[in-house]
Known about the structure:
alpha+beta, two-stranded antiparallel sheet, 3 helices
Amino acid sequence: xxxxxxxxxxxxxxxxxxxxxxxxxxxxxxxxxxxxxxxxxxxxxxxxxxxxxxxxxxxxxxxxxxxxxxxxxxxxxxxxxxxxxxxxxxxxxxxxxxxxxxxxxxxxxxxxxxxxxxxxxxxxxxxxxxxxxxxxxxxxxxxxx
Length: 145
């Protein structure tokens, strides 16, 4: 249950900051968080996560409430190379970076709580202090002057 976004005109560093907020969250919680996040990439990621959830519902018959974001990968896309002409016939490069984002959803795994039985016998480990004997320092004879 995946969705892809290719060549969005936001740098990967900026998208990854917002993607880190929602990694591992439930889809409903992630969409709510992104709704109130004041970053330019937040609505873009919200739309992508909603698309991945719709793919899971329609194609794989999954319940939207039980979906969790298992992976969000943000990679660099192609870089648009532009420039700014400056004095003496020179040119300063401007790199307009793009991002490729992959969202992967998985159904929520129910955690089973198992009781851990304590061992009836508790082994006590006695600490044995080892005294290290320091070697005696040998005195060097003084040189005659």
